[in-house]
Amino acid sequence: MAASSVVRGEDAFKKVFKFYKRKSPPPDFSDVTDFSKGLPSDKIVPAVLDLSAVSDSEAARAGLQPVKSWRAFGLQGYPGFIFISNPFLRGSQPFWIRQCLKTYPQKPNVCNLDMHMSPSDTQDIWGQSVHGLSSSPSGKREPKTLLERLRWVTLGYHYNWDTKTYSANHHTPLPADLHLLSVQITAACGFPGFSAQAGILNYYRHDSSLGIHVDESELDHSRPLLSFSFGQSAIFLLGGVRREDPPTAMYMHSGDVMVMSGQSRLFYHAVPRIIPALEMEGHRMALFSQDSTLGGVLSEEDRLLCTRYIQSSRLNVTVRQVLGPGQRFPETPSPPQKTDASQAGGVPGQTSQRRKEEEESSL
Ligand SMILES: O=C(O)CCC(=O)C(=O)O
Ligand SMILES: [Mn+2]
């Protein structure tokens, strides 16, 4: 059976999610759209970019190819959805991978480990993982490094997984490099003036998935949501405004960028499966060739650790504008004093997994 045989009807999205999540026997992937292969499908249309919005030298500063070289597509039936097939300069992805693994998890940013560890224990996740990740496997089961236990990091306006809100009270500066990258992508896609205010980084192991959801916590839905993928490939499902709408499945490979804007901004989506790069002919990890000097040349140690990590993992960065121009957060009464985990909405630390498991647990 192919996924396309799932017809519109009661929670068609969940049926397709289960189809692609199945381990044994592995699903039929013949319906999965692969934008890296160009335009063979009648569902894929070229996306129109604003070639004058970003100069070639500005693009290079963010590790991007000149906009005229980007391969950008739309998908019939998904207004506002833009897929840019790896617009990064050869060799610039290692910079972004290192930022996601070494820089962005640092304080004052927030990560899942902070939910049950003290700030002093999580302040140098990279440093504490170097030894464990760089030593060769001894055969016996080693405890997981902090880096291997990292599941999410929030940036800018920090997302509260319990209340599903952002607030004015919990904000730290969004990294300037990620802001620059996001502004360039959005400008080329026809959204001048995008202000990157929040980021959510997801760290996927080979058996991770992300449940069916809509990103609606941002207060201004007229601004696009950006998504960057690095490392192992994945299957992304994009549905509609209702769970009865059967989703379209597509591959996301390392370097791919998605822009969800217009109607697609509020469409259901999910990641049911990570696909090891070895299974993706043509997407083996030729990532660490160094023709781009973005951020300087990686040290041997950084290169080794990033390569080790990415051989079995996928990184996803979403960048969001939370508030429209001049918009403010609604006044909220001060939160009640937290005395124990039940008042915090659950056991601390489990919030990290909740989003990934909430759909699966009800499947
Ligand atoms: O990992 C992905 O590609 C999707 C991430 C996502 O949808 C989210 O963080 O809201
Ligand atoms: Mn999402």
Automatic annotation (TrEMBL):
One GO cellular component term noted in the UniProt record for this chain: nucleus
Any one biological process term the GO annotation gives: regulation of translational initiation by tRNA modification
Protein keywords: Dioxygenase, DNA damage, DNA repair, Iron, Lyase, Metal-binding, Multifunctional enzyme, Nucleus, Oxidoreductase, RNA repair, Transcription, Transcription regulation, Translation regulation
EC number: 1.14.11.33, 1.14.11.51, 4.2.99.18
Gene3D superfamilies: Alpha-ketoglutarate-dependent dioxygenase AlkB-like
Domain of life: Eukaryota
Principal location: nucleus
Cofactor note: Binds 1 Fe(2+) ion per subunit.
Basic and acidic residues bias: start-end ranges: 354-363
Entry keyword annotation includes Translocase: no
Positions contributing to Fe cation binding: 213, 215, 269
Cofactors named for this entry: Fe(2+)
Catalysed reactions, semicolon-separated: a methylated nucleobase within DNA + 2-oxoglutarate + O2 = a nucleobase within DNA + formaldehyde + succinate + CO2; N(1)-methyladenosine(58) in tRNA + 2-oxoglutarate + O2 = adenosine(58) in tRNA + formaldehyde + succinate + CO2; an N(1)-methyladenosine in tRNA + 2-oxoglutarate + O2 = an adenosine in tRNA + formaldehyde + succinate + CO2; 5-methylcytidine(34) in mitochondrial tRNA(Met) + 2 2-oxoglutarate + 2 O2 = 5-formylcytidine(34) in mitochondrial tRNA(Met) + 2 succinate + 2 CO2 + H2O
Location in the cell: Nucleus
Pfam families: 2OG-FeII_Oxy_2
Keyword DNA repair: yes
Molecular function terms from GO: broad specificity oxidative DNA demethylase activity; class I DNA-(apurinic or apyrimidinic site) endonuclease activity; DNA N6-methyladenine demethylase activity; ferrous iron binding; oxidative RNA demethylase activity
Annotated ranges, domain Fe2OG dioxygenase: 192-298
Chain segments carrying region Disordered: 324-363
Subunit structure, interactors included: Monomer. Interacts with DNAJB6.
Protein name (database record): Nucleic acid dioxygenase ALKBH1
Originating species: Champsocephalus gunnari
